[in-house]
Amino acid sequence: MRRGRGRGMRGGPGRMPPYMRGPPGQKFVVSHSTFDPVLADNFFPRTTPASDETTFTQALLKRNQELTPTGQEQGFVQNLVTKITTILDTLIVTPDAAELGLEEVRAVGSYKKGTMLLGHPVADLAVIIKKLPTESLILELATRVQKTLKEQEGLADFPMQSNEGGFNISSPDGALVRVLLTTLPKNLQEADPAKHVDVKLLEGALATIRHARWFEENAFHTSTRLLVRLFKDLRKRFTGFQGLTPWLIDLLATTAHRAAMVNSSRQPLPVNVAFRRALQLLSSGLFLPGSLGIIDPCESGNVRAHSVLSLEEQDAICTCAQTLLRCLNHGAFNEILSLGQEGIPKVAVDTEVTSWGGVIVTPGQKAYEKQHDQEDEEGEAEGDDDEEESAEMSSQEQAEEKMETNQES
Questions:
Q1: Where do Acidic residues bias regions lie (predicted)?
Q2: Strands 122-129 and 176-183
Q3: What is the spatial distance between Cα 96 and Cα 81, in angstroms, rounded to a whole number?
Q4: pLDDT for the residue 227
Q5: Given the DSSP bridges, would you call strands 359-361 and 166-170 parallel, antiparallel or unpaired?
Q6: Which of 51, 62, 113 minimizes the C-alpha distance to 329?
Q7: DSSP class of residue 214?
Q8: In this predicted model, what pLDDT tens digit does every residue of 206-236 receive, in sequence order?
């Protein structure tokens, strides 16, 4: 066997040093807690009065209004959801549909959370089956729902498309409902890849149910939903934020807005403070390797929510947030929020060098570059464990991202 460099001497850019590595199987070693300006407010008293951010707050509210679906659009989605839910509930108790084994129907995703975006009239329903769903069962259920809809609506057409994890049904007015099929948790271990739906998709659908329930219980304040919409919009417009999943955005918005844990007033943070705080948390490395991050409240075992991100995505999120925060601190909120001003061309604040009141802001540079160098035999077998483990997405988040967010990415 070749003798080369010792394990303790190996390393490289972007690779965690050996003394910081945890036991085998542990993806992240918590080496630091992110600096939070809200938590540290008592330790850093202000020397000057706080600036007036009325204009910034009004801009946030205006952008949220622009992103909120119209009443007509929401009505179309609500109407289709009600019809499909009624049909599925009827199939649960209908004797001649007993072979389908329907157990329960749950509204999930952005529709349930109240965070839909304008121009995306899409709702998600999770259907729990008593047995493991197969491709033929999905097609049979989708056909029954479509047939019943046509019988109820006469000549109206309801296009249907089945897929690996469920089926989609559209209405003539443009609304879309995606039905995600899953099963009881006790059945997951018996799944046969050759016959049943991919277990990752089944786990992902179950995760959407847990996420919707948690969000309903903990993100009840209107401003939290406002933050979710704003950051979903940022993810669409800024490349560096594209790694953020809807669940990460939900957790970030809730953490940035809820003040019950961070001050004595027991009152939520104002929306302008919460928005800035969210960018500050991302800028200070909330979703970087080794960060305490946010513990996923819907998973057991103290799983850190940002473990679903690759190292490239973690670096891009932090870099983009730092650039936007520097621009925001110099008054560039209209450009960040994409609020057009007459006579002023749009500027790519995340990729172009910009000037705000005489202050030059240069976009941040990558801190992590993925290495493609050749390793020795020992290194090829073991050297990249940390990168591979950090980049691997959990099955629940991977499936949920695939099923829940195509309409908003």
A1: 374-391
A2: parallel
A3: 23
A4: 94
A5: unpaired
A6: 51
A7: H
A8: 999 999 999 999 888 888 999 999 999 999 9
Q: Angle formed by the axes of helices 246-257 and 222-237, to 10°?
A: 130
Looking at every residue in the chain, the average pLDDT score rounds to: 82
Return the H-helix or E-strand segment holding 354: strand 354-356
Angle, CA 124 vertex, CA 142 and CA 199 arms, to 5°:
70
366 vs 316: CA distance, rounded Å: 7
Does 310 have pLDDT greater than 70? yes
Judge whether 333 and 56 are in contact, CB under 8 Å. yes
User: How would you classify residue 40: left for phi > 0, otherwise alpha for psi between -120 and 50, otherwise beta?
Assistant: alpha
CA distance 338 to 238: 11
| Residue 116 vs residues 229, 327, 404: alpha-carbon distances, Å | 7, 27, 11
Outline where DSSP puts E strands in 157-302. 160-163, 166-170, 176-183
Torsion sign, CA atoms 219, 221, 224, 229: positive
Q: 117-148 burial, b if ≥16 CB within 10 A, otherwise e?
A: beebbbbbbbbbbeebbeeebbeebbebbbeb
Burial class (CB in 10 A: 0-12, 13-18, 19+), 395: middle
169 φ/ψ angles, rounded to the nearest 5 degrees? -130, 130
Cβ–Cβ < 8 Å for 211, 250: yes
Please choose, from the candidates 122, 333, 317, the residue with its C-alpha nearest in 3D space to the C-alpha of residue 239. Answer: 317
Q: Are strands 102-108 and 122-129 parallel, antiparallel or unpaired?
A: antiparallel
Between CA 121 and CA 117 the distance in angstroms is 8
- DSSP secondary structure string, 97-140? GGGG-EEEEEEEHHHHHT---TT--EEEEEEEESS--BHHHHHH
